[in-house]
Amino acid sequence: MTPRRKRLFGVLAIIAGVSAATALAILAFEDNLLYFYNPTQVMAGQAPVDRKFRVGGLVTAGSVQRSEGSLEVRFIVTDNQQSIPVRYSGLLPDLFREGQGVIAHGRLTESGDFVADEVLAKHDENYMPPEVAGSLHPMPATEPAG
Amino acid sequence: MIPELGHFALILALLLAIAQSAFGLGGAARRHAGWMAAGRSAVVGQFVFTALAFAALTYAFVQKDFSVLYVATNSNSELPTFYRVAAVWGGHEGSLLLWALSLSGWSIAVTALSGSLDAPFRSRVVGILGLISIGFLLFMISTSNPFERLVPAAVDGNDLNPLLQDFALAVHPPLLYLGYVGFAVAFAFACATLIEGRLDATWARWTRPWTLAAWMFLTVGIALGSWWAYYELGWGGWWFWDPVENASFMPWLAGTALIHSLAVTEKRGLFKSWTLLLAVSAFSLSLLGTFLVRSGVLISVHAFATDPARGIFILGFLSAVIGGALLLYAWRAPALKSAAGFEITSRESFLLFNNALLVAALGLILLGTLYPLFMDALELGKISVGPPYFEVVFIVPMLPLLALLGVGMHAAWKRGLLKSKQRRLTAIAAASVASAIIVGAAVYGEVRPLTTIGFALALWVMGCSLLEVFQRLRGRQALPGAVLGMVIAHFGIGLATLGITGVQSFKIEKDVALGIGDATTIAGYDFRFAAMRDVRGPNYVGVEADVLVSRDGRAVATLKPQKRLYNSGGNPMTEAGIEVGAARDLFAALGEDLGQGRWSLRIQYKPLIRYIWLGALLIALGGGIAALDRRYRLRSEAREPAAAADAAR
User: B329, B283, B44: which is closest to B184 by C-alpha?
Assistant: First the structure.
């Protein structure tokens, strides 16, 4: 092979490789990009109904309800303006607490509940998930109970 | 008084770092032997004063000096001594100090062990390491001073985050940083090469042991982090594709590509400019990792620090280092020509595939990690990229990589694969596929395509590694450290693949609500929630459950998961109960009291999971053995790569 043809092959190989990687990335992105919405956006109908997304906010004080002795739990997530009821079955993270920030992954049901398959609270107790911090509306009067 | 001395030592270290880079680079440019010697002395001084600052901070922690803000934030009077020492790097400021100490440690090691290099080159390496030290010390002194006083002093400290009160996580940051920072050596070698416009490839020989050593530390650090996440977070996962995990994994991938391309550059004088670019990339990704974790830009479980001023400094530093290195590269690299050719089945071309695939995986992981940040910065919506994305973009390049690895190990430089080896390799391939199907069917009762591919590749890689040793021993050939290390590391890759395939294919995870005396069954194991009692530790109280595991009526183990409340306050912490086994782990974590005497429990069956970490340790061991190969320490006379040395293979 002449050096020129060799270089041509090299360039073609790089183009093929990069295209393959791009195609792979796009395919993999397809179903795995999770958008974040706050309760106000969800209530305004901006959140998708046919795919998973994330919703985040503060757990409303006094809203956590367990069916006694079972893993089923319901709670309300608020951005201090709108609220959305969340249903979840499973172990809640250690940092889950009323009045604190959480992010739930899941889908919206027809009844308007959010059914979560994963609930995340952050490790550091002083640390607020940035999406949640940025999406909260100013508190009306009192500070949320820590 | 001691903290002020520490602060003062830090400032002196900064001044010495400035001297180190000025005399190092200036001395080399002017060929001034006195300046170059002064640059080397400054390295020693910088190390001494950084170490003094570190010792001062450690002393403040051990003495429970809560008049120091950082100590008050990250320690507590009840914290056991071991964790008071580990708490030195439990927060932002202290981990930067550890970073700086690690960098000055690598600098002094390079200075001490590089006597055989020609003086200007050595001096430039010293100078560039000094520039990096300046950046970090300046960052610490101007935005993150660990010695800042708290007036009035706190009565007691806030405590070290209980999640970090753990042996594996206490030693995880030092190892990780030794790895991150170790790539600075390869970076400095690469920059010095570019500055001098060296056309030969001897720098590759000098760089190899340093890169291998850094890569070894990084490997152990990552493995420890994964192991910790498994037993400490209470989720039983071993890798979450969290941005912070990716931040440490990306330099590892770049480093892995680098140690392979360095081999080609050293032995055959090929891929010169590509290797330089990888050396720059590996360290740039280490800096990026530090930036991602430490600036608080991430939405992450690990992001303990949030301060935009710091973010801007690191971003500026990052741009200066990466931008400077890339400019240097753009200016000098075109002069580097690789003349030699090679066959498509030669070792060179397998290593080329290795690099292409590793870099593809790296690029796609980088994309998934940074994409949400860009979207957020551009106000295009807040998104996150789920683990399935990373799994796909990582596995797809890894499958051909593992398949090629086995052959590549046995391919000769330049010429290609020998006929006699082809037969043996075909036999290993056939045996691997057959065994993978049999194992799937006989042990797990199922033959799934992806599982079979995973098992077959794992066995293939391990088989090919063993074949290399077997052939060398039978042919009474020498087994030099570099080859032995390579074989052990590749065997570790196979073992880790075996573990990953097993656990990802056949793991069972179940959340259940159980009362005392209740039981649940997974994978043929009965988990009985037998008892609950109070426990008390040095700085926490909690409850502990007895979960009796039995199989076919025979007792297997008693798991003792705990839920702890630390006296310093905060949220409850989960301590999982784990029964370790060669074939599987059994895992139980306590959730919460559900009322009516019932508790939520997370019960898991994790087949072969141990081999992931065992494999990772072998990978690191291989790196260490290769780094100590005698050939790297011999004074290299030859200017051009000694291709003859391996022609005998």
Answer: B283
CB contact under 8 A, A36 and B383: yes
CA-to-CA distance for B584 and B505, rounded, in angstroms? 13
Contact B485, B625 (CB under 8 A): yes
Decide if B389 and A32 are in contact by the 8 Å CB cutoff.
yes
Tell me, yes or no, if B356 comes closer than 8 A to chain A by beta carbon. yes
Q: How many of the other CB atoms lie within 10 Å of CB of B501?
A: 25
- HSE value, Cβ hemisphere, 13 Å, CA-based, for B281: 22
Q: Percent of chain B scored above 90 by pLDDT?
A: 69
| Nearest-by-Cβ selection for A90 from B360, B511, B574 | B511
For position B24, what pLDDT does the model report? 96
Question: Phi and psi of A84, rounded to 5°?
Answer: -135, 130
Q: Is the ipTM of this complex over 0.90?
A: no
Q: Give me the pLDDT at residue B45, please.
A: 97
pLDDT more than 90, % of chain A: 25
> Which residues in chain B land under pLDDT 70?
295-308, 338-340, 634-649
Cβ atoms within 10 A of the Cβ of B201, count? 24
Nearest CA in chain A to B91: A124
How far, in Å, are B279, B359, B410, B425 from residue B406 at the CA level? 25, 19, 7, 8
Domain boundaries, chain A: 1-33, 36-135
Confidence of residue A126 (pLDDT cuts 50, 70, 90): very low
Residue type at B640 in one-letter notation: E
Average pLDDT, chain A: 81
- Tell whether the torsion through CA atoms of B432, B433, B434 and B439 is positive or negative: positive
Q: Give Rg (Cα) of chain A.
A: 22
Phi-psi region of A90 (alpha: psi -120 to 50; beta: other; left: phi over 0): left
Q: Which of A143, A105, A103 is nearest to A127 (CA)?
A: A103
Q: Taking chain A, what is the end-to-end CA distance rounded to the nearest angstrom?
A: 72
d(CA B433, CA B460): 8
pLDDT band at A112 (very low <50, low <70, confident <90, very high): confident
Chain B positions touching A16 (Cβ under 8 A) are none
Q: Does A42 touch chain B (CB under 8 A)?
A: no
pLDDT of residue B338: 67
CA dihedral B407, B410, B411, B413 (to 10 degrees): 140
Nearest to B389 among A28, A35, A131 (CB): A28
CA nearest neighbour of A36 among A123, A144, A130: A130
Percent of chain B at pLDDT above 70? Answer: 95
Q: Is A38 helix (H, G, I), strand (E, B) or coil?
A: coil
Question: How many angstroms away from the CA of B233 is the closest CA of chain A?
Answer: 9
Q: Which of B177, B176, B200 is nearest to B276 (CA)?
A: B200
- The pLDDT value recorded for residue B91 is 84
Q: Which pair of tokens denotes residue A145?
A: 């109970």
Whether pLDDT at A124 is above 50 = no
> How far is B255 from B286, CA to CA, in rounded Å?
10
Q: Letter for the amino acid at B448?
A: R
Cα B22 to Cα B10: distance, rounded to the nearest angstrom? 18
Q: What is the pLDDT of residues A19-70, one digit of tens each?
A: 888 888 888 887 788 888 989 999 998 888 888 899 988 899 999 998 888 8
Please report the pLDDT score of residue B303 as a whole number.
Answer: 39
Record: fold of A36-135: OB fold (Dihydrolipoamide Acetyltransferase, E2P) (2.40.50)
